[in-house]
Amino acid sequence: MNEADVRSLLRGVEDPDLGDDIVSLGLINDVEMREEVAHVSLALGAPYSPNETAIASRVREVLGEEGIECELTANVDRPAEGDVLPDVKNVIAVASGKGGVGKSTVAVNLAAGLSQRGARVGLFDADVYGPNVPRMVDADERPQATAEEQIIPPEKYGTKLMSMDFLTGEDDPVIWRGPMVHKLLTQLFEDVEWGALDYMV
Asked: Number of folded domains in the chain?
């Protein structure tokens, strides 16, 4: 059994989201046979994803049926140097051009679900006109600041939170123009100590 044989077997493993085999999709970084053990590096980029966990299990199953022991690793692409969030592996944007359609509800539940699966999650409420995520999760704690003037986000239900609501008084009217909004959001991203996260929602 050589590397080509292992790759051929792995064509029997399908990505349930993309509907094709993982070899054709380029989800195999490398295959190496060492002492009768197949060392397979998978290009999986969404930690704690149920489907990606299923893919890894299926790889072990397919190779095991042929009597091949395997060692699996997953390579998550790292952001390029200079990115605003270099320690965040995945960013999920929840957006809509219309208000009142449930963006915050979706974002909060998505973050909570990922956190329950064991992922490290940050939830950034980018609504500067009507931020309500802190109220939805009943977050009473305010952000703290370090000696280096970095913002330490509060945590709720295992998720790090940041919102414009933390920076204004309750029911205070806020008037923002486009450039001001851009500057504010960039500053909040850069000045918050998010730490290492699997997901930013």
From this structure: 2
